Amino acid sequence: MTYDIFSTQAPAMPRIGKGTEVIGLLLSKASKEMRQPLLPMMFPPLAAHLNSSVELMYSDNKYYEIGAGQMGHIIGNSGVGKNQLTYQVDAVCRDFSEHDEGEYRRLADWSRQMKTLGNSKSKPERPSVYFTFPPSNITPAAFTQNAEALEHHGGRVMYLNLPEVGLADRIACGHKAVSQLIRQCYDVARSGQLRATESGITANPRLRLCLTLSSTPDEARDWYKRDMVNGTFGRISFSYVPPSERKGRIPRLGTDNDEEYLAKLDQYLLRLTNATGRFVVKPLNKVADQLAQEMCDLANLADSDELFQLSHRSIFSAWKKAAVLWLLNDQTYSRSIGEWMIYFCYYDLWAKLRVFNDMLGLGEPQLEDSQKRGPKNLLDELQNPFNEQQLENLRASLGKSKEGTKHQIAVWRSRGFIEYSAQTGLYSKTETYLKRK
Questions:
Q1: CA triplet 384, 390, 393: central angle to 5 degrees?
Q2: CA–CA dist 29, 35 (Å, integer)
């Protein structure tokens, strides 16, 4: 495996190489402590600049829209710097804000005309407006209406940045409906109920939405506790800001969004807004296939079906981020893009395990107990060398069946993780396995 997701330390970010220079540009405006958790959160607002015609073929031979359905959730204690995301988003979404301000003016002009005309029958029709970056307090009715307008105007994407997870409940008209909203967003499915009006059937638009959420760990655990196994949890990419040691200094942000920075950023954004068409990027799919095997190895090491299921969507989400990097690099693949794709997959899983490890099908214990249960790398938990009885005891302590011990040993041997010594009757971790860590 490329990274150790079971460690308390986050996977180290790859070096910025040829084709990923945009990452350095984006990170230059964040404080050093927040660069790692903020980076994955930048892809939803970036992807929202793409129109619905931009599709890439995934390893399953199906084409997927890249601009819609990208979601991120940054989790950290209050005061750690999650609000830096807003500064980053404001810079990336300047064109959205400018467009929306024009739409607000059109609505204001229409509203004034309506008041002026009073009860006159010759009132003008409401202008056909759409908003790409609506405020976080958007109402459910306005959300559905805007989704309809975005579809009508060529399948554009709406981006929402919600500083509190509870705001998503309000948009979806209750937490029970949030999981449906997330699935429709991720799958670019139709949203809302068919409704009969004087002008016909309406309110069933295809939901093209990119979303970012922020919360504390306790808020996140409470928010997802009913959605750990229904697909909602896996569809969202996570960033985690772990508690840090006390430091007597104020975090240093990058300088204000100066003209030089904004000019460079706009050059990249133009590549997204101008992109159109279907593409097959074989190197990206090759990396996805590599990750599929690595995730299978991880699940075998932890003997965890939950981790295996989670990894499917982590791979896909990382692939979509890499597709954005490919588009930002003028539709050119580089080795660095593949390295970052691998990193994004592992980082997402690491963040999930750090906050929700115990909740992956195992009830609702307190946050401080979250690392005592859930998926673990069982081979790392064993001394080197070890015997079959030691593995059996370890599995029993984690609530796993003793009967699965022989199967797990067989899987580890077939994957080249361990080797058996007939002379000692012990299993040893192979050099190949140790070097992969």
A1: 145
A2: 9
Report which secondary-structure segment, H or E, holds 149: helix 140-152
HSE-CB for 300 with a 13 A CA cutoff:
20
Q: What digits encode the pLDDT tens for the residues 358-369? A: 887 433 444 444
In degrees, rounded to 5, the angle at the alpha carbon of residue 234 between the alpha carbons of residues 227 and 204 is 75
Alpha-carbon span 290 to 87, nearest angstrom: 35
Q: Strand, coil or helix: what is 430?
A: coil
Q: Is 390 exposed, middle or buried (0-12, 13-18, 19+ CB in 10 A)?
A: middle
Least confident window among 157-171, 230-244, 313-327:
230-244
Q: What is the pLDDT of residue 174?
A: 87
Strand partners, 190: 206
The mean pLDDT of 144-173, rounded to a whole number, is: 91
pLDDT, mean of residues 390-398: 87
Determine the average pLDDT of the residues in 186-190. Answer: 82
339: pLDDT strictly greater than 80: yes
pTM across the whole model = 0.85
Sign of CA dihedral 305, 307, 310, 312: negative
DSSP per-residue letters across 267-328: HHHHHHHT--SEE--HHHHHHHHHHHHHHHHHHHHHT-HHHHHHHHHHHHHHHHHHHHHHHH
**68, two tokens:** 């819609």
Cα separation, 295 vs 314, whole angstroms: 10
- Give the chain's mean pLDDT: 87
**Residue 10: its H or E element:** none
Partners of residue 210 on adjacent β-strands? 159
Residues 6 and 380: their CA atoms lie apart, in Å, by 9
pLDDT at 35 over 60: yes
Q: How far is CA 174 from the centre of its chain?
A: 22
In eight-state DSSP terms, residue 129 is: -
Helices 84-92 and 259-273, axial angle in degrees (round to 10): 60
| ω into 385 cis (within 30 of 0) | yes
Both tokens assigned to 376: 């673990």
